[in-house]
Specification:
CATH topology of the largest domain in chain A: Rossmann fold
Structural class of chain A: alpha/beta
Number of strands of chain B: 14
Radius of gyration of chain A: 28 Å
Number of helices of chain A: 22
Helix content of chain A: 40-55%
Distance between the termini of chain B: 46 Å
CATH superfamily of chain B: Creatinase/methionine aminopeptidase superfamily
Oligomer: heterodimer
CATH class of chain B: Alpha Beta
Strand content of chain B: 15-25%
Number of domains of chain A: 2
Largest interface: A-B, 12 and 9 residues
CATH class of the largest domain in chain A: Alpha Beta
Number of domains of chain B: 1
């Protein structure tokens, strides 16, 4: 057993440690004087699955990895008895004694590495300063979780329990004697690597899947046979005081994200990090994993943190009475009045840090002031969404000062009404610049930040019921909003893979100041004033409040809906646009503006 | 003019002093009852305390019986029918805003006051209350400029919207931000009918007709009927702001003369509170 050329280049030091009746291959990198991070791999991997993550952590931490018994360059004891938790814990203790004898370490586990890490933090909490679990639940918790779901067999609980039951197909298979080993040895390794590439997007590289995969796969089956039936049949009451962060891949084919339910009762200091990725996150998102591990360690040990990291810690922390958007950063454009202001305040009320942007800076400042009364301190920006350079500066300033937003509401918009032939080119430019280009800039700039960060997010674009309701009186406005709706749909398809939800809100007739600032083309100033007054009055009589729209925006994000019509009339025209477009075409001929 | 004879003579210092006395009595009552409010007390109980306090000090009739609104009822959240204004069994709790509103008549002289407070700490209430101060000076300034009442109403509305609040006085009967008060007399019995004094209803009914003939109204709102310059007389002005389930208002008497206007009394709890806040800031 020696370090490979690449490992030597990365400064990896290899040694052997005597575990409980086995020799363990231990790989260290980074300055041993720094805090120690121990990375425990899963099945059927070796320490090499962590290569990228370890490299990302090595300049700040003393990183220790080892091949678990039965895998890679460590010994392969025969028989399932040699793979019980008792042996695994002895091995881990031996590695800790050899590499970090006199201090508490930060533990990170993936898959089976995480399962045995749960056992470790629950049975010897004094050895660990923090724990990051990836795609490997505490078996005892799974058993309790399943029992609880079956005791209250609501459709949702049954669905979730069945979901995990199906994801666990291989566990049942591994209980079959001899056959799994035979398959591994007969050449399952090649199709396994291929499946990894197809389902997870993880291309094979040197070390993963390991050359020893057939042997690792066959020996590691012992882990399943020695521990799973026992723990699932007679779960213990496992709890831990170690500050724990669970990275929850939402597209995991083997571990249901719902398994974290009820975990906070057993882990008082718990943070959750949902990530739109499959089971092998350490391979598919190594940079994110390394960053999250470091952030968790910093949080626990009080290390250096900027505002964004402090906010993230609050966002991920599970706590009773926590407000739903605690620690989230929410950007709202057009936040100086109407729907924008109500939305900003609704988020603030739910604990979010609000960035209120508006072309009217004093109005945005007022929104920020009110938001600060309801929730954490908010920031105001004066920005014209139609101005590309201003939007780029704005997005950069937000990222630099506050971090990447979790929610962006592209809400700024202007109204314009009148016959098509009375619209000038400038009218069209203005309405498209604000209503469409504003949304394009906001989506483009912030979606790029969200994708770079890799933790998902949500973009909400304020379209309008006019987006699917043709009308002779709103040609430019309705066109701009229809474009916003389509842009939203396209973007939703594209950003799904990044865990970024994109939604359109189609409010309808809402009592806001848009009626008082709308332009009625082809009218004299006094007629225009009269039109505004009349429309404002009609909208006021309709009296659907922007606060009600804001509640719908929150709901839309919660359920990740694609399109949300808000008022009853918006619902009706939305339905008509699909059932009977001819009716809408007929109505479009009436001048309603 | 006839209405001044019937309601209040604003050029008569002695008469104004009588109104000032009854208004002071109201604020004294509000201060004392507010001091007794503790968690668990109901709106009905608070109203009972106000009523007893006032009756024991010679009050003999009402424009309306006392009101108390606790919690989000202070912002009239979910109010659809008039009976919801009546005191309920809502209980006060720590951090809750409240509003006391009373309009007693003593020897024919009447006042109508609103008193906003909060039990303990509430950041939203503090913000609202600080902003409410601006409305007292704004309204006075606009009345002095003799702007039509409906325009003043619209200006107040515009400020409310700029500040991001909701106009809650539009929930009052007649959507009024103010109404005329004065000497209440008549032959009808001093009874109360849900929850307005019978004599007050008689007086206001008479005034509605009388003023209508002159193209004015004793009720001040944003409608066409209020499209007239301030009518000389005594006006109970009650801007009421709401924000996220918290409501604040003040209500006190504004003296409008032929060419000027002033608040009947500046020695009031909310005026002192606002002055202390700006002094502290």
């Amino acid at each position: 057993m020696t370090a490979s050329a690449t490992e030597r280049a990365a400064g990896v030091r290899v040694r052997r440690v005597r575990g409980d009746g086995v020799d363990l291959a231990v790989y260290e990198q980074g300055d041993p004087a720094r805090p120690t991070v121990v990375l425990v791999h899963g099945y059927p991997d070796t320490h090499a699955v962590w290569d990228e993550v370890a490299a990302g952590l090595a300049d700040r931490f003393h990183v220790v990895r080892y091949d678990v018994r039965g895998a890679g360059a460590s010994s392969r004891p025969f028989g399932r008895r040699r793979y019980t938790f008792a042996y695994l814990m002895s091995d881990l203790r031996a590695v800790l004694d050899a590499t970090a004898p006199d201090r508490r370490v930060h533990l990170v586990g993936h898959d089976w590495g995480s399962i045995q890490s749960w056992e470790a933090v629950c049975t010897m909490p004094d050895r660990f300063a923090s724990f990051t679990s990836i795609s490997g639940p505490c078996l005892d918790h799974v058993a309790h979780w399943t029992r609880r779901a079956l005791r209250r067999p609501t459709p949702r609980n049954l669905r979730r329990a069945a979901g995990q039951g199906l994801r666990s197909w291989y566990i049942y298979f591994f209980q079959t004697p001899l056959l799994p080993e035979a398959l591994w040895r007969a050449g399952l390794a090649r199709p396994f690597a291929r499946a990894l590439e197809l389902t997870e997007g993880v291309a094979p590289r040197r070390g993963h899947p390991a050359r020893t995969l057939p042997r690792d796969g066959a020996a590691g089956v012992g882990l399943y046979r020695a521990n799973m039936p026992q723990r699932l049949r007679a779960p213990r009451d496992r709890r831990t005081t170690v500050p724990t962060q669970v990275i929850v891949p939402t597209r995991d084919l083997f571990v249901s994200p719902h398994l974290v339910g009820g975990l906070a009762e057993r882990v008082p200091d718990l943070s959750l990090r949902p990530v739109a990725a499959g089971h092998w996150v350490p391979r598919s998102r190594p940079d994110s994993v390394a960053r999250w591990v470091a952030e968790h360690i910093d949080r626990v040990s009080g290390g250096p943190r900027d505002a964004a990291a402090a906010r993230t810690a609050r966002r991920t922390r599970v706590a009773a009475g926590r407000r739903p958007f605690e620690g989230s950063l929410v950007v709202v454009t057009g936040a100086g009045s109407g729907i924008g202001r109500a939305t900003a305040l609704a988020f603030a009320e739910r604990g979010a840090h609000v960035v209120a942007a508006d072309v009217d800076l004093p109005a945005a400042e007022r929104t920020a002031e009110l938001a600060g009364v309801l929730g954490p301190a908010a920031r105001a920006f004066g920005v014209d969404v139609a101005d590309r350079a201003a939007m780029e500066d704005f997005a950069a300033a937000v990222e630099r000062d506050l971090g990447v937003p979790d929610v962006v509401v592209n809400n700024a918009g202007i109204g314009m009404a009148g016959p098509f032939l009375d619209h000038t080119e400038d009218d069209w430019k203005r309405v498209l610049d604000v209503n469409l280009w504003g949304v394009i800039h906001g989506s483009r700039l912030f979606a790029a930040q969200m994708r770079r960060r890799g933790e998902g997010g949500h973009i909400v674009n304020t379209a309008s019921a006019a987006a699917f309701t043709p009308s002779r009186s709103l040609p430019a406005y309705a066109t701009s909003k229809a474009a916003v709706l389509m842009l939203t749909e396209c973007l939703r398809a594209e950003l799904k893979g990044d865990g970024i939800g994109v939604s359109a809100i189609c409010p309808g007739i809402i009592n806001t100041s848009i009626t008082r600032t709308s332009r009625f083309v082809g009218r004299t100033p006094s007629q225009q004033e009269a039109d505004r007054h009349r429309t404002a009055r009609a909208y006021a009589l309709r009296n659907f409040t922007p606060e009600a729209v804001a509640e719908q925006i929150i709901k839309t994000i919660h359920h990740n809906r694609a399109v949300t019509p808000v008022t009853p009339e918006a619902h009706l025209t939305h339905l008509l646009s699909r059932l009977s477009p001819r009716t809408l075409r007929l109505l479009a001929r009436f001048n309603l503006a | 003019m006839s209405n001044r004879v019937a309601l209040a003579r604003t050029d008569n210092a002695a008469e104004l002093e009588r109104f000032r006395e009854i208004q002071r009595l109201c604020y004294e009552c509000a201060d004392e009852v507010a001091a007794t409010l503790e968690p668990g007390v109901t709106e009905r109980e608070a109203c009972r305390r106000m009523r007893r306090w006032l009756l024991s000090r010679g009050v003999d009739d009402w424009l309306h019986t006392p009101f108390a609104w606790f919690g989000d009822r202070s912002a009239f959240r979910g109010f659809r029918v008039p009976t919801q204004f009546l005191p309920s069994n809502a209980r006060l709790a720590e951090g809750m805003p409240y509003i006391l509103d009373m309009a007693p008549v003593k020897d024919g002289y009447s006042a109508d006051i609103g008193y906003a407070g909060v039990l303990g700490e509430n950041r939203v209430w503090d913000r609202l209350d600080a902003d409410l101060a601006g409305y007292r000076s704004l309204i006075l300034r606009l009345v002095r400029e003799r702007r039509p009442f409906a325009e003043i109403y619209a200006e107040v509305d515009a400020l409310i919207e700029r500040q991001g609040y909701q106009n809650r006085h539009s929930k009052y009967p007649g959507r009024v931000i103010g109404h005329q008060v004065g000497i209440i007399g008549g032959l009808l019995p001093k009874r109360v009918g849900f929850p307005f004094g019978v004599r007050f209803l008689q007086t206001i009914g008479r005034e509605l007709v009388k003023e209508r003939l002159e193209g004015r109204s004793p009720l001040w709102n944003g409608a066409r009927q209020s499209q007239h310059p301030p009518t000389p007389g005594l006006w109970a002005v009650e801007p009421h702001l709401g924000f996220r389930g918290v409501g604040v208002k003040f209500e006190e008497l504004l003296v409008v003369t032929e060419d000027d206007a002033f608040w009947l009394d500046d020695d009031l709890p909310h005026v002192h509170r606002w002055a202390a806040r700006t002094g502290a800031a």
